[in-house]
Amino acid sequence: MIDFAESYPIILPEKINSYVFYDKILSKIIKALDSQQKNICLVFRNTRHITTHVLPLLLGVGLIADQNYKNKISLDIGYNLDLNRFLRGSKFLEFAQGVFDFNKEELPAVAKMANEHKITVLPIKEDLPNDFYSIPTEQKDQIIAYEKSFLKTDKIPLILRNLSSNPKQAKAYLAILVEIISNTRIHSRSGCMIFGQTGNFSLSICINDFGIGFDQSLKLQGYNVDLPINILGEMKRHNITNKDSFLELLHIFRALEYSRINKEKTKRYNLFDLKNEFNKNRATIRIHSESAQIVFSGDRCYGCNKHCESLFECYYCLMDDYKKEQEYSPVRLYDESLQGVHIEAELPI
């Protein structure tokens, strides 16, 4: 156990989902790192439930603290058996050993989880040419095809290969996920984490990278089109004061619009398809970039055709329902930024 007298404790709440992580926890961690606090410790003693989407985010923050701040964060996990079973069975503790400071041997022994409920960590694609975006299309297609072949072996978690009892639909889902993950490895210039878990009523999926983000990635791909909106006017209309977060929100819409346009050229699945295909089945999709997040909820977006012609219409539809109480808003703007792109999906089962 961690000695509180020697540490800077951050007490985690009883229940943690990704909204709580971004809204409550991330700011405390970043504030401690920015103020160069030593012996930062995440304390799980009161925590009883953590959702699937939070584990890769915690690993990502640990990596950023260790690599960017040269400040290794400690973990005080406690003895809650259900929490320990989840953290151990998901392989979180296995990956956390090289990222956080804690003693795995002090934790209680627990029964194993199902094999398919495990985080998959894919390292950075070291063999990607530095001039990837300027090489001939045929050569680019070969690299992408090889990457997809690599992923289709045993790299996609088993649980994500059986997303639907309908074989045709399951095949489409898998093809979309393979394309999204391969795009993540190629365009983010970082590794990525994948996790899937079944619950009582839904299946949760998350794909996380801690790379260069949508804006830089779009620039590398030569896409410099801005949204045809009045930025300052929109900020004033919605009483938004955080310009950086609002611009990051627009980058998410730009990435979706680029995906829509690019789909017509390449005929390959992409982020646009992920949103559309999953929404058709009342799934909820959350796309988070740096300090902004869009929530395409299954109830709200099911059957909506506005996005088919332009994502800009989708922007106005969602922003018209923007709320300062962000937990209930389809658009969320946070004070703190988490490097990279983080995608969450919840499919009803």
Task: Please write out the topology.
Elements: E1 8-11, E2 15-16, H1 18-34, E3 40-43, E4 49-50, H2 54-68, E5 74-76, H3 81-89, H4 92-96, E6 120-122, H5 137-151, H6 167-187, E7 192-198, E8 202-209, H7 213-220, H8 231-237, H9 243-266, H10 271-280, E9 284-296, H11 298-301, H12 311-319, E10 331-348
Parallel strand pairs: 1-3, 2-4, 3-5
Antiparallel strand pairs: 6-7, 7-8, 8-10, 9-10
Write a compact overview of the structure shown.
By secondary structure, the chain is an alpha/beta fold. 41% of the residues lie in helices and 18% in strands. The strands form 3 sheets. Strands 6-7-8-10-9 form a 5-stranded antiparallel sheet. It has a 3-stranded parallel sheet with strand order 1-3-5, with helices on one face.
